Amino acid sequence: MANLKDVAREAGVSIATVSRVLNNSKNVNEETRLKVLKAVKALGFQPSRVARRLRARDGRNKLIGLIIPDIRNPFYVEVVRGVEETAYEHEYAVLMCNFAQDEQKEKIYLNIMRSESVDGMIVAPVHEHDKDVIQLVQSGLPIVCVDRGLADVDVDVVLVDNFRGAYEAVELLIKAGHRRIAYISGLLQIPTSRQRLEGYKKALSDYNIELDDNLIKFGDSKHESGRSLTAELLDLPNPPTALFTGNNLITLGALETIHRRGLKIPHDIAIVGFDDMYWAISLNPPLTAVHQPAYEIGRRAAEMLFQRIAEPTRPFAQVILRTKLMVRQSCGSLAAANGAVQSIKEEG
Q1: Which one, 18, 116, 213, 269, has the greatest CB density within 10 A?
Q2: Domain CATH number, residue 19
Q3: Same structural domain, 150 and 166
């Protein structure tokens, strides 16, 4: 790989002259500049990112890190898209890592990000007491959390109103005539899972429906747990008539089990998922789901990060975006469901 010395030799100039050309210095005549650029092209020379950072007047590397827990999850795919497109508009590159909800893997990736001299990071922490992310925040590196915040530390965060989203989903099922409504939760170490669980419980309580612990199952937020836990619910002596799933991967697993059992949605069991997917409307029947503005989460997070990079001492901010209940045919009585949506709109 060519270096500055090679370029200088090829162009017949000093290393200092090559540096001045690469830094767009005005103290270089046009003939020399063209000779250096020709040598750079001929040798395929690429200045290192760290070297460019050291030469940059503002000390910025034009590189941000993005660490997410599950690239298989369509929600995070949209978050990534929002971050990447916004970063591109700001002439930043994005270094992305997927830690698969593995705390040790996340730690390794955080260290890699630091070694790459990123200007800041957007992170979905493994949990709210994530000491490695907390240490980065306390070190002064610009950090924005997405989907999940951190406890006991001030940090910029972008997320949705998970409690309200879950409440509205369960209320919809109640108003469609269901009383035995099961819930499959994601990992409880993740704040979003706990908030959705609380929304589920509050809706039941507000409509005087007794909480049945047998109808609540705790999984790992993955497809496999949706599949196995749905089977457990369907095998109960008195199975649920409706199912609320905690994220889109759990929903996929639940749908697989329901179809394998030969059950008809919503006649045999109704289902509402948290997370809307672009193909949800193509299912038979189309899936009722809580839509999260994932792209907007990514976009807002990137904008907040660039603000933090530019103004390190500005006050920390928490952005909570609204979810939207997308009512389709999987929830049961459409007449009752439509009434529920109207009620929700009036109350909101």
Answers
A1: 18
A2: 1.10.260.40
A3: no
Task: Report the C-alpha gap between 38 and 19 in whole angstroms.
Answer: 14
| CA–CA gap between residue 292 and residue 279 (Å, rounded) | 15
Between the CA of residue 29 and those of 12, 24, 39, 49, what are the distances in Å? 14, 11, 16, 26
| Model confidence pLDDT, tens digit, residues 17-62 | 988 888 777 788 889 989 999 999 898 887 765 555 545 555 578 9
Same domain membership, residue 331 and residue 215 = yes
Q: Would residue 309 count as lying in a domain?
A: no
With H, G, I as helix, E, B as strand and everything else as coil, classify residue 321.
Answer: strand
The residue segments making up the domain with residue 241 are 162-293+324-347
Structure-block tokens of residue 228: 């196995």
pLDDT per residue as tens digits for the range 80-111: 999 999 999 999 999 999 998 899 999 999 99
Whether residues 246 and 221 fall in one domain: yes
DSSP 329: G
Evaluate whether 175 touches 236 at the Cβ level (below 8 Å): no
Side-by-side strand order, sheet with 242-245: 216-218, 181-185, 242-245, 270-274, 288-291, 324-326
- On whether the CB atoms of residues 63 and 34 are closer than 8 A, the answer is no
